[in-house]
Input
Amino acid sequence: MRAKYSILSKSSLINWIKKYNSHLDLNSTKGRINHMPKNDTRSLNEKIEVVHFCIGKNYNYIDTMNQYKISYQ
Output
């Protein structure tokens, strides 16, 4: 696929995918990609708080990700 679309490196493709999944502009130079820790140790109440925050922000996932340092997934 890289050759078909003249993508020079695998790392460029990976970075574009990360930006796309983080809802960033593909031309953005910001490196604002949040990653969830491998072992999410949040309690049920903390997870409920995140959901309430997101709903209260009219499902603004970017604000929720930044506020709680979590990934979109």
About this structure: The chain has a mean pLDDT of 76.
